[in-house]
Design goal:
Number of strands: 6
CATH superfamily: Winged helix-like DNA-binding domain superfamily/Winged helix DNA-binding domain
Shape: globular
Strand content: 15-25%
Number of domains: 1
Number of helices: 4
Helix content: 25-40%
CATH class: Mainly Alpha
Strand order of the largest sheet: 4-3-5-6
CATH topology: Arc Repressor Mutant, subunit A
Distance between the termini: 13 Å
Order of helices and strands: HHHHEEEEEE
Length: 138
Protein backbone atom coordinates (compact mmCIF):
# COMPACT_ATOMS: atom_id res chain seq x y z
CA UNK A 1 0.00 0.00 0.00
CA UNK A 2 1.37 3.47 -0.79
CA UNK A 3 2.32 5.55 2.18
CA UNK A 4 2.80 9.25 2.61
CA UNK A 5 6.37 10.18 2.62
CA UNK A 6 8.70 13.02 2.89
CA UNK A 7 10.05 12.46 -0.56
CA UNK A 8 13.13 14.50 -1.34
CA UNK A 9 11.55 17.83 -2.16
CA UNK A 10 14.21 20.37 -3.01
CA UNK A 11 14.42 23.02 -0.32
CA UNK A 12 15.75 26.53 -0.75
CA UNK A 13 19.24 25.47 0.27
CA UNK A 14 19.23 22.48 -2.09
CA UNK A 15 17.92 24.15 -5.25
CA UNK A 16 19.53 26.84 -7.27
CA UNK A 17 16.49 28.44 -8.85
CA UNK A 18 18.66 30.64 -11.05
CA UNK A 19 20.53 27.64 -12.41
CA UNK A 20 17.31 25.72 -13.03
CA UNK A 21 15.91 28.71 -14.93
CA UNK A 22 19.07 29.10 -17.01
CA UNK A 23 19.14 25.38 -17.88
CA UNK A 24 15.53 25.68 -19.05
CA UNK A 25 16.52 28.61 -21.26
CA UNK A 26 14.59 31.15 -19.20
CA UNK A 27 15.64 34.59 -18.08
CA UNK A 28 16.45 34.72 -14.37
CA UNK A 29 14.24 37.24 -12.59
CA UNK A 30 13.71 37.87 -8.91
CA UNK A 31 10.03 36.88 -9.16
CA UNK A 32 10.87 33.58 -10.87
CA UNK A 33 13.57 32.76 -8.34
CA UNK A 34 11.37 33.57 -5.35
CA UNK A 35 8.39 31.61 -6.66
CA UNK A 36 10.50 28.51 -7.44
CA UNK A 37 12.29 28.65 -4.09
CA UNK A 38 9.00 29.10 -2.24
CA UNK A 39 7.42 26.25 -4.20
CA UNK A 40 10.34 24.06 -3.11
CA UNK A 41 9.40 24.84 0.49
CA UNK A 42 5.63 24.48 -0.11
CA UNK A 43 5.02 21.58 -2.52
CA UNK A 44 1.51 20.57 -3.60
CA UNK A 45 0.23 24.08 -3.07
CA UNK A 46 -2.30 26.38 -4.73
CA UNK A 47 -1.56 29.92 -5.88
CA UNK A 48 -3.65 31.26 -2.99
CA UNK A 49 -1.60 29.22 -0.49
CA UNK A 50 1.66 30.22 -2.17
CA UNK A 51 0.94 33.97 -2.28
CA UNK A 52 1.57 34.89 1.38
CA UNK A 53 4.82 32.91 1.42
CA UNK A 54 6.03 34.63 -1.74
CA UNK A 55 5.01 38.01 -0.32
CA UNK A 56 7.14 37.32 2.76
CA UNK A 57 10.13 37.58 0.42
CA UNK A 58 8.77 39.74 -2.40
CA UNK A 59 6.42 42.24 -0.80
CA UNK A 60 4.49 43.42 -3.85
CA UNK A 61 4.06 40.08 -5.61
CA UNK A 62 0.66 39.71 -7.23
CA UNK A 63 -1.49 36.69 -7.83
CA UNK A 64 -1.15 37.34 -11.59
CA UNK A 65 2.66 37.38 -11.34
CA UNK A 66 2.66 34.03 -9.52
CA UNK A 67 0.30 32.55 -12.12
CA UNK A 68 2.62 33.81 -14.87
CA UNK A 69 5.74 32.34 -13.25
CA UNK A 70 4.01 29.01 -12.67
CA UNK A 71 2.67 28.86 -16.25
CA UNK A 72 6.15 29.58 -17.58
CA UNK A 73 7.59 26.95 -15.24
CA UNK A 74 5.06 24.35 -16.39
CA UNK A 75 5.80 25.10 -20.07
CA UNK A 76 9.55 24.79 -19.40
CA UNK A 77 9.21 21.53 -17.44
CA UNK A 78 10.32 23.06 -14.13
CA UNK A 79 6.92 22.89 -12.44
CA UNK A 80 4.23 20.21 -12.39
CA UNK A 81 0.58 21.34 -12.34
CA UNK A 82 -2.18 19.12 -10.98
CA UNK A 83 -5.58 19.69 -12.55
CA UNK A 84 -8.17 17.74 -10.62
CA UNK A 85 -11.87 18.32 -11.18
CA UNK A 86 -13.45 20.18 -8.29
CA UNK A 87 -10.12 21.03 -6.67
CA UNK A 88 -7.96 24.12 -7.12
CA UNK A 89 -4.88 23.61 -9.27
CA UNK A 90 -1.86 22.60 -7.23
CA UNK A 91 1.81 22.87 -8.12
CA UNK A 92 5.15 21.34 -7.22
CA UNK A 93 8.67 21.50 -8.61
CA UNK A 94 9.52 18.68 -10.97
CA UNK A 95 11.85 16.15 -9.45
CA UNK A 96 11.96 12.47 -8.56
CA UNK A 97 9.04 10.48 -9.97
CA UNK A 98 6.40 9.74 -7.35
CA UNK A 99 2.66 9.36 -6.99
CA UNK A 100 0.12 11.44 -5.16
CA UNK A 101 -2.91 10.87 -2.98
CA UNK A 102 -5.80 13.29 -3.46
CA UNK A 103 -7.88 13.43 -0.30
CA UNK A 104 -11.57 13.04 -1.06
CA UNK A 105 -12.37 14.71 2.25
CA UNK A 106 -10.30 17.93 2.22
CA UNK A 107 -8.69 18.09 -1.24
CA UNK A 108 -5.15 17.89 0.12
CA UNK A 109 -2.56 16.46 -2.27
CA UNK A 110 0.19 14.38 -0.64
CA UNK A 111 3.21 12.65 -2.13
CA UNK A 112 3.08 8.87 -1.82
CA UNK A 113 5.65 6.20 -2.49
CA UNK A 114 4.71 4.55 -5.75
CA UNK A 115 6.70 3.50 -8.76
CA UNK A 116 4.68 5.72 -11.09
CA UNK A 117 3.31 9.24 -11.25
CA UNK A 118 -0.27 8.24 -10.48
CA UNK A 119 -2.90 10.21 -8.62
CA UNK A 120 -4.74 7.98 -6.17
CA UNK A 121 -7.83 9.06 -4.27
CA UNK A 122 -8.60 8.32 -0.65
CA UNK A 123 -8.26 9.89 2.78
CA UNK A 124 -5.08 11.80 3.66
CA UNK A 125 -3.13 11.43 6.88
CA UNK A 126 -4.59 14.69 8.22
CA UNK A 127 -8.21 13.51 7.84
CA UNK A 128 -7.76 9.84 8.82
CA UNK A 129 -8.46 9.13 12.49
CA UNK A 130 -5.33 6.98 12.77
CA UNK A 131 -3.10 9.55 11.05
CA UNK A 132 -2.30 7.21 8.16
CA UNK A 133 -3.28 7.78 4.54
CA UNK A 134 -5.94 5.43 3.19
CA UNK A 135 -5.98 5.13 -0.61
CA UNK A 136 -9.31 3.97 -2.00
CA UNK A 137 -9.30 0.37 -3.16
CA UNK A 138 -10.78 -0.44 -6.54
Amino acid sequence: MPTTSTLPQPGPASIDAGERLRRAGLRVTTARQVVLETLAEQPHTTVAELLPHVRDRLRFASTRAIHDVLATGVAAGLVRRFDTVGVAQRYELTGPEHGHLLCTNCGRLDAVCTTEEAILTGICSHCAPDGLPHPATH
